[in-house]
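Posted in: Protein Modeling Q&A

I'm a second-year student putting together a small comparison for a lab meeting, and my supervisor asked me to include a predicted structure for Synaptotagmin-like protein 2. I've never done this before, so apologies if this is the wrong subforum. The sequence is pasted below exactly as I got it from our records. If anyone can share the structure token output, I'd also love a short note on what stands out.
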Amino acid sequence: ESDTASEISFQFNRHKKSPSIGSHSSDMASVSSVSGSVLSVYSGDFGSVDAQGTVEFALDYDEKNREFQVHVSQCKDLAVVDEKKGRSDPYVKTYLLPDKARMGKRKTSVKKRTVNPIYNEVLRYKIEKMVLLIQKLNLSVWHNDPLGRNSFLGEIEIDLASWDWSNRKLNWYPLKPRSLSAVNGADHRGVMSLSIKYVPPGSLGKWPKNPPSGEVHIWVKDVKDLLQLRPSGVDSFVKCYVLPDTSKKSYQKTRVIKRDTNPVFNHTIVYDGFHTEDLKDACVELTVWDHEKLTNHFLGGIRLGLGTGLSYGISVDWMDSTQEEVAFWQEMMLAANEWIEGLLPLRSL
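Accepted answer (user: helix_wrangler)
Welcome! Here is the predicted structure, written out as tokens:
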């Protein structure tokens, strides 16, 4: 039951169609070929280290330049990711929430082989003070992995509306585990941790490294806090489609993780045949299911796309990504060949 990366080939039809009454959106795309070749095997529980340690930083707002500044000084006593080598390669990342797409992320440099990194870097946001005061600052620490399998080391979230702006001094703050408070609503179904990457055609040099067409890589890491349907827990797996194609050739799934409401999958899928323009019209749908002999029960899902309601010029109901899902997809589109990590709440689809 090792986790493999399956490669699926797509050829999207780029001409507009006039859908007939009762037709399905899956008619808009066809799958040219499917390859079941194993690209790689991801073993181990990536990103599962417990948050520990502290981070020292200061906040300031430059009225003259209308700039929000996060002075990241250092961290102490971070978790060790590679226990065999006793190393972590940490960096600090910040977001302004809830509008991650508009404001974007900021990152410090990576400090190698240390659990006590010193940065002394300033992360800057050009933003009006009135807008800033309705935001939250999410500051997180990550271990940088050369293959993109970054590990979460801890975070802190600050409501900027209640921040004391006269406090410009560096202060220490404890790093906390991933916060589920933002999605612990009435319809809370759990949270999926995943990474995605887009490899444009011709971006990696000569063949065989260079894909003849673009590739979308989807790495499903784990899911936290699933609904428990039985006293014994839940036997869960994840399905993946790239809409508008809903054929069996598009369908991929992970293995089933039994009796666990916090399953770890570490399963990667690679879809090729993606031209850059397809990213505006396609949507990656990931759904989590409880496995039973007679029928599977839907637990929740996410849809990664631009959420425009349109696909190849035709109105579709599945192009309904949330603001957070749209921001995640947009970040991937803007950062070619770079793994983008995310933590997204599951929802009903």
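A couple of things worth pointing out for your meeting: The CA atoms of residues 99 and 233 lie 35 Å apart. The domain at 190-346 is CATH 2.60.40.150 (Immunoglobulin-like).
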